[in-house]
Design brief:
The chain is α+β, with helices and mostly antiparallel strands. The protein has 4 helices and 5 strands, in the order E-E-H-E-E-H-E-H-H. Helices cover 30% and strands 23% of the residues.
Length: 127
Amino acid sequence: MLKKEALLLIPNVLKVFLENGQIKSFTFDGRTTVKDVMVTLQDRLSLRYIENFALVLEYASPEQSHKFLLLQDKQPLAHVVQRTHYQGMRCLFRVSFFPKDPVELLRRDPAAFEYLYIQVGTDGLLA
């Protein structure tokens, strides 16, 4: 399990792990949604388009394989954290929907393409 980097260590603060190793923290209340975090990350990371991105919860299954739960845009963060019963889950910002044409993504949004490239390398797909 991912115990050392728990999903919620401080009340009403969510840590979001990025593919480059950075961690972004977000305070939230009962009205804050997943989409609010996505839009803030879009701005902080200078991304033009985020339709390929999603927030996901990562956890290690008993077989020690990593599993991802895709969060929906309208979900309140407080609800996401409350219904999470797995110890050590992490919230990640990931390219969850691979672009049909990565070259077009590079033309439209070089920062998003770079993020995808880092993620593919981190996932061990660049062999």
